[in-house]
Structure formats: C-alpha cells, structure tokens
Amino acid sequence: MVTIKDVAREANVSVATVSRVLNGSGPVSDETRRLIREVAGRMRYVPHSGARSLITSKTETLGVLLPDLYGEFFSEVIRGMDDTAQRNGFHLLISRAYADRHGIETAIRAMRGRVDGVVVMSPDLDAESLLNLPSTIPVVLLCSVPRGNEIDSLTIQNCRGAKEMVAHLTSLGHRRIAIIKGAPRNYDAAERLRGYRLALREAGILPDHLLERAGNFTEASGYSAALELLELDDRPTAIFAANDSMAIGALSALRESGVGVPEQVAVAGFDDIPLARYMDPPLSSVHVPICELGASAVDLLLHGIAHKNDHARRRERVSTELVIRRSTRAEPAERPPPPATLGKAMASI
Amino acid sequence: MVTIKDVAREANVSVATVSRVLNGSGPVSDETRRLIREVAGRMRYVPHSGARSLITSKTETLGVLLPDLYGEFFSEVIRGMDDTAQRNGFHLLISRAYADRHGIETAIRAMRGRVDGVVVMSPDLDAESLLNLPSTIPVVLLCSVPRGNEIDSLTIQNCRGAKEMVAHLTSLGHRRIAIIKGAPRNYDAAERLRGYRLALREAGILPDHLLERAGNFTEASGYSAALELLELDDRPTAIFAANDSMAIGALSALRESGVGVPEQVAVAGFDDIPLARYMDPPLSSVHVPICELGASAVDLLLHGIAHKNDHARRRERVSTELVIRRSTRAEPAERPPPPATLGKAMASI
DNA sequence: GCCCCCTGTGTAAACGATTACATATTTAGG
DNA sequence: CCTAAATATGTAATCGTTTACACAGGGGGC
Fold this sequence. Notes:
Two copies of one chain form a homodimer. By secondary structure, chain A is an alpha/beta fold.
C-alpha cells in the first residue's frame, strides 16, 4: 500500500508538503502542487483514513442504526440519507440492531470511534432508556419517541395524518370505521392510533374496541385482521390500516370474500408507497415523504456534528399529505401517470 | 475520550497488558485480567478503531456499492448482508454510486482504506471496464455481468428462471407471449430476455419483436407497456414482465381496460416480492431468495479477505423457483398464509 | 546447583497521517 | 540598502493501538 511517504520521496518533497497539497491547507507553489498532484495520481495514492482520523479525531462517517424492518420504507430512507451524506463528504455505516435497550447500546458501542454521529431508528416504545445512551457523539432519533430537550429527533406527523384520513372517511358519511393497528409497541403505530381515536371523537363517534384490531405492519396481518372484521355482527363500513402493506392485505381479503371496495367497505392506508396507486381499487393513503425524512435526519445530525454536540436540540416533524384514490370514494378512475422517462435509469430488479 | 493509557493508569498496569486482556492475546494472570476488565467496563473504554486499523491494517468493515435502485430488493439484500457481516464481526459501509465506470471507480477510491473488501452491484452492462478496478482488496460482483476468472461473482439464475416461466405459459397453450423488458442496459434484464427467447424457440414459436416492449422495472413502465400491447392488432394472450413491479403495473392497466386476467391475458412476473400473492389475481412469479443473495455475497467476500485476495475466484448463481398463482392459471383461489406470529416484531412502517 | 523454560509483565517501536514550529527564500517599504 | 513581512518548505511531535523484545521470578529436570 502506498503511503504519503512514498509520494513525498517520489516527488522529492517532504510529507508535510504533500499533506498540504492534498488538503488544500497552507501555501504551496503552483509548480510543486502540480507535481505532487501528478505523482499522487500516478501512484494511486489514497490516504489511510484510520491514520487521518487518529490525528484529526474525525471519521467523516455517520452511523445508522435500524430496527429489523422490511419493505420499501427502509430503502427510501437510506437513499435520502446517502444523498445528503455524500453531498457533505460523509459515508454511511449501516447496522441493524434489536430495538431494545441492550441491542442499541451494544450497537452504538461497536460504532464508537468509527463514526462522528449516529441516526437511531428505534420505534420501540419500550426503549425509553435511550435517554442515557453511552454516547458523547451527536445522536438523532428518527421515528422514535421524541426527547425534545435531550436528543435531536425527527418524526412523521403520524397523528395528524391519521386524523385527517379518518376525518375524510367520516365526511363521506362513515360511522363504523375500523382500524388495523400497527406493531404492538411501535411509536408510529401508537400515534396513528391516537389520530384515529381523535378523529372519531371530533366526529362524535363513540369508540368501539371491537373495531380496533391488532396488526404488525405486514400484508399477512392486514389480511387476517380484515377477515376478522368481516365476521363481526355489526360490520364496519370503512377500514383504516396503519400502513399500506396491511391495507393491501385487507384489500385482498375483502376481494376474496366478495366484498365490494369502496361500495360496501372503504379502505385507506398510510405511507403512500408507490404501489398504492396500482392497487385495485387504487388505495387512498397518507403520503409520507420518506426520502426527505432520511435527508433531514442527516442534516440534523451534521448540524450537531458541526457544533460539536453543543447545540440547541431540535424536534422536527415532517408533514404528511392526504392522497384520496378510489378505495375510499367511488369516482371515475384516476389513471396512473405516464411512466417516468426511460432514460433515467431505474435499476431496481 | 478515554484511551487505553487511561485504563492502564487506572489499573496500575502497562498498556500492553490492557491490550493483551482486551484482545485475548498473550498470557495474563487471572487476577489482572479480572481487574482490567472491571476498570475498562467502568470507564466505558472503547478502542479507537482508527488506531487499531492503522497498526493491524484491518478495518473489519465491508463496503457495499449499490446502483440507484428502488424497492424491496434493496432492503432485502442488505438485510442478508448485514446478518452475515455482523455474525462475523464486520460492519457495513454502504454507498450508492452511479453505475458507470467513473462512478464505481471514485466510490471505490473513497472507500479504500476504510474497508477490507467490497461488494459491487453494477447491473449496468456498459461497466465492462470493471475489470481493471483500482483495487488491491477483494471484490465481489453481485448481479453484474460475471467475470469468472478475475473477480468473484454472484448472480441470479435469470435466464433459467425466465425460461421456466415462459415454458409454463406455453405449456398452458399460449402462443402469443409478450415480454415487458427490464431497464435497457441492465444485466439481469438482458438475461431474463434471453430466457424468454430461449423458451419460445424451444416451443417452436417464432419471435415477434412487436411483443417485446421496453420497460425500466417500475410499475409505471409496466403499466404503459401493457396498454401498448393491448392496442396491437394481434394481441398477446400472455404477458411476462421482467420483474414484479412491472407486472403489477400491467395488471393495473389490464384491469382498467376491462381485460380479464388470466382468462383473456395471463400475466407473470419475476422476483416474487412479498406483495405478489396479494395482487388481484395473485401474481405468478419467479421466486428469488434475495436475502440469501446478500448473505452469500458477504460469505464470498469474507472468504476472499481471509485468503488475502489470493484465492481461486468463484462464480456462483443462486437458483430461482417457479411460483404459480392465479394470474396465469384459472384455478381455485390460493389463500394467503396465516399472518406471521405477531410476537416477532416486524417494525416496518 | 545449574540451566532452561514458562509465566507474567513492562518498554518502546512501529503504523500513516496532520500540524505547530523552525527555517530559508523572496518581496516590499522606508 | 536594511528590515519586516510574506511565502514556501522541512522537521518532528503527536494521535491510540499492537506487538516484538526484554526482563524478572519460579519450578523442574538433570
């Protein structure tokens, strides 16, 4: 492996000069600069990041701690993070960890010294103890129960979004509105449930716990929850699923049971994943700008790093947007948009 | 930040002894070992990975270079990688890069010194020049055009899988079978197209270039390709989409055009993403073990690292499996499986 | 009783970069 | 023409580890 010394020797200068050229620090004559650039390029010299981080105590790497999650949400949020990180010259060290206290703690320890800051997604409500994280480095909580004063956090407007969607359903005349809840101890799930209840109350509808069914964010759980709802004596006329995957599972169950959507039962989801509009019928949902969520989290983290973790903590929420399609309203078909330009490579498999 | 010296001082021993205890190297008395463990724990000491990698020239980190990809494939493959990496004490440094030569090259340079090896996904056919990667570290090509002799590579049995699916369609009596192709210069796409043509030839069906439509792996492109196919004078009776997303888009288009699936037109996809079975009708597809794909890639890479890149190169393919559902065959409904255990947290949002 | 080896520990030299400080050369101002 | 400042470069300390080598003490084997 070629080191800075090799370059210095080859260029007949000292290591200091090489370092100065490569970092743009200190004054160097144009000619020397040109020479060193040429030599370094020719020898394919790349600085050893370990050595560099040893002396500068910077790694230019951000840690990302994810729960054991599935689906499109994951890839989208990482895309957003990577974009912003790269634009600022940072790398992403990604790791999955069990959502509980212990898992997060060991994961953070393992990252210590490798990263300048960490984005933690820990949707588990139990992880209260995130508070005393063993970290002197900046941390941003993403989609986790916020701790406004101690840790930067970024969440989705879950409650508001859910409330708006349920309000949309009541405005259509629905009175018996069921919810398929998200994973049991999940923060987003809890907030969406709260929004649902709030909307019912505002519409003067008494809550009915038979209409609140368990789910875990998977298609399968949405499918079986919908089947259960259909067996009730007093069926709901609308089903709000806490995410799109479950809504899709529910659509499938209704279809197989010969129940018309939206005529007999309206269905709505949350997240507005790309697929939603291709469902039959196209699925009404609460749009979440997932990619920007990741981008903002990294922005927040970079801000903390720039201020050496000695900054006013922020607590941001990204706002959602109601997207009404046929699954909640019998209207003329909304045609999917024309395909994206073929030229712009979309290399998904 | 507490260093090994701090620990040594606090425990009244030399840094060497601390290092020995923490790495399990060299002989240390039981009592000293216990003491040092206790002190290090109490002081929350974590070794500086930069300093360590400086002297050991190991980083215990794997680089992952991804194209600009969307959807579930991405998250699944990373899950597989992270599992295997963590099990072997490695971290994952993830970065997206433009698929072209230049993009990959700069990305690899940026990673050099930070990682012990790299998994490169570069599905772009143009990236022939991957050959002379500027790397002395082990590289594994994932889902890229394989270079059996020079670089380890791991691919999907695209051709075989596509061929089997099309053979399934011909066995049902279909003669006019269309394909919605994948992204233009994509390796997987090209292989799936090859399998399609092979199957047609074996069934004695003459190719019809009107039945080969452009696509780019997105729902939108599948949607519009299907619409075009419906406008043909001599319509196909079956559509094979090079991935599930496009198949879903096609289903949507057929539905809106009032075309019955599978009675009037059969539809099949590729990948067998979880959603496939929840479509209407449930989508026949070619199952790809995505998670294992990532796991195997990391295994391959770790093997290369263990042998200091001085090992016989391998070229593996993960095999696919035909999954036939209602979209290609009018039979009694296949009911989705019961939901996964709720206990097992699935924290997707 | 002597030598050798094993065990347990410490000392100090790497590893590859950055950077404060020193030095040499040039430029500018009076 | 002299001095001060500005420019260009080199020297060497430093970051936090690992590890080769040295050393001290103790226990057998002969």
